[in-house]
Amino acid sequence: MIIEEAAAAATVEDQEIISWFEGVAENAGLVQTQTLRRIIELNHGTEYLQKWLGGDLRVQDLEPGALESLFISSVPLACHADHEPYIQRIADGDTSPILTQEPVTTLSLSSGTTDGRPKYVPFTRFSSQSTLQIFRLGAAYRSKVFPIRAGGRILEFIYSSKQFKTKGGLAAGTATTHYFASEEFKTKQKSTKCFTCSPYEVIAGADYKQSTYCHLLLGLAFCDQVEFATSTFAYSIVQAFASFEELWEELCGDLRGGTLSPRITSPEMRRAVMDCLSPNPSLASKVEKKCRELEGSDWGSLIPKLWPNAKYIYSIMTGSMQPYLKKLRHYAGYLPLVCADYGSTESWIGVNLEPYDPPERVTFTVIPTFSYFEFIPLYTRNKQDNSNLVVTDDFVEGEPLPLSQVKVGQQYEIALTTFTGLYRYRLGDVVEVAGFYKGAPKLTFICRRKLILTVNIDKSTERDLQIAVEKGSGLLSQTRAEVVDFTSHADLAAHPGHYVIYWEIKGEAADGVLEACCREMDAAFADHGYVVSRKTGSIGPLELRILESGTFRKILEYYIGNGATMSQFKTPRCTTNQVLLKILDRCTVKSFRSTAYG
Ligand code: AMP
C-alpha cells in the first residue's frame, strides 16, 4: 500500500494528525526556517545565543531567511562538550537564562551512558509533547496497514530508571523515564486507544528483572487482548523472552493461583500487580501446554503462539539493534517486525511512514517542526600513504546544509538546534538520504559516527564490526550455537596492538568452528588501513574471546547500577572502560587468534 492510500483509509483523529504532517512535509524547507525563527525568538536572550548573536539582535526586524543565514554564520557547530559547561551550571542550580529563556527543571541522560559516562541534556515539556506527537503520528500510519482493535492491550517491555536530583535540585533521569512519568504517556494510551498491560508501578519498579517478570505475567493474563508487543529498543524484547524461557513454569503457577512470585519484593509493584490478577487455572493449563510444545521447538514463534491476536512487533530494530533481529524473528514467527521511529534524547528526528517495510529497508521521514536540522555531508577520503597504498581515511566534511538542500544517496551527520537549548549540536549519527516524502527527506540510519576500533592507521566503525560479526557468526549455523551478544576492544597494551572481539554464545561450538569464526572476522574487516597493517604485521591477529554465559547480563547490571535504563540500553559495541574490561577478562573462558593473514 502506498502512503497516500494508507492516509485515505484513516479515522478522523488519525486523519487529523496525518493531514497536519502532510502539510508540514510539503513545505518542509519553509517550515524549518520558521522553526528556527521560533527557537531564536524564544531564546535569543539566553547567555549562549547572546554570546554568538550579540545582545542587540532584533529578531522581528529580520526576514526568516536572513535570520537563518545570520544564525548559521554566527553560531558555531558544537558538540556535547561545548554545551557541557552550560548544562553543568544548570544542573548545579543556576536559574538564569543560560540555554533557554524558561528555566530547565529536568535533565535527561543521553546515550553517553554507552561510553560509561552520563551525558546530560535539558528536558522540557516540549520533549514530552513531541514524543506524544510522533507516537500518535506513527500509530496513525501503522493502524492503516495493521489495524488494531480499540480498547486492546499492548505487551510493552518498558522500564524507568532511577530518578535522582542534581546538586542544584533538578530532576535527572533518562528521557524515557521522564516520558513514562508524564501526562503525555497517559494521553498517548487514550488517544491511540491501546493500553499497556502493566500498571505504572511495574514500569517504574527499580529492578528490571522484577519488572520483566510482571510484564510477562500480566501479558499472559491479558493474552487474548494483546494487539502488539513492543519495547523502545529491540534489545529489551529479546531479553524479556530469553527470561521467559527460564521463568515460564513459575509464571504459569502464578497465573493458575492468582499469586505473585516472592521474587517480586517491591510492595508497590506487588500491590499493583495483585490488583490486576485473579486465579485462572484454565488459562494457566493452556499456556503450560503451549510452552511444553515451544520448548521442543527452541521457542520458535513464541509470540504468536502465546499471544494469538498480536498483529506485529514494534520497536527500534535498526542501527545497533540489528544484531538482535535474528532472535527477534525467531520469537516473532510470521508476525511482521515494524520499525519504531528515529530519535534521541536530544530530539525526535524522523517517523516511519511505511510500517510494512522490513528493518533492512526502513526509512525515517524528518519531522520539520521538532528541531532545526542541519546535515553535514560526509565524504570518504582516499589518500596516499607512504607506501603508495590507498588507505581510506576518516570522513571529510562538507559545509552543513539545510534540510531542503540534501541529496539522495549522500551520507550526512545530523546537527540539531532544539527548543530545549542545544544549538548546532552534532548528534554523532550518520544517516543517508534515501529519498523524499513531499519536501521532507527520508533517512536511512547508517551508524554512530565515532570510529570504534583503531590501532594505528586503521579505522573501523560500528558498522564494520557488525558486518564482521555477522560473517563470523554465520559459520555457527553449522552448529546449534548462536551469538547472544558481542562487544570489542582495541588492545593497544599488547605488541603489536590488535582487535579483540568478545562473544557470549548459547549452545556448544567446537574449537575448530570458533577458530574458523575468528579467521572469518579478521578477514572481514575491509578498511584499507586494517588490511595493510595486518599484512605488514603492524596490527596483530584478531582475537576472539568466548565469554561465560550471563556475562552480558552482568554488563547490563553494571550500567543500570550507574543510572542507565533497560528501556534505552544499548550494549557498548566497543569499550575502553576499565570496569567493563575487567568483567570481560574475568568471564573469558576461551580465546582464539586468527590465522587469516598467515
Ligand atoms: P538515546 O540517547 O539513548 O536516546 O539514544 C539515541 C541514539 O539511539 C540515537 O542517536 C541513535 O544513535 C540511536 N537510535 C535512535 N533511534 C534509532 C533508530 N530508529 N534506528 C537506529 N538507531 C536509533
From TrEMBL:
The keyword rRNA-binding does not apply. Transmembrane segments: none annotated. It comes from Phoenix dactylifera. GO terms for cellular component: cytoplasm. This is Indole-3-acetic acid-amido synthetase GH3.10. Belongs to the IAA-amido conjugating enzyme family. GO terms for molecular function: acid-amino acid ligase activity. Keywords: Ligase. Residues 364-448 form the GH3 middle domain. Residues 464-578 form the GH3 C-terminal domain.
